[in-house]
Amino acid sequence: MPYALRRNASGELLADRQINIHGLEYFGVVLWPARPDEAECRQALEKAGAGDPAEWTPCELTEHEAKMANVKLRNDPSRRVFLRGGVLEAEK
Q1: How far apart are CA 71 and CA 60, in angstroms?
Q2: How open is the CA angle 32-38-36, to the nearest 5 degrees?
Q3: Domain map of the chain by residue range?
Q4: Cα 52 to chain center, whole Å?
């Protein structure tokens, strides 16, 4: 199951511009195949400009949640996706 970073206070999942396997840029949730270590978390947060690493915690997602989080982002950097109480929500 994939892992993402979740902001403790709001439930926001870390998203950033990325390159897919076809070399195309997209905006989506930053995912790891296994729990990321502190250095991986720090690097992803710095790249995304997401602030203090102490505000974020790795969380495990199902494959379906990971896919739906990206669908809710709509490849739009102005949108944010949140995992609150086991429910994915998106806001602009």
Answers
A1: 18
A2: 15
A3: 3-91
A4: 15
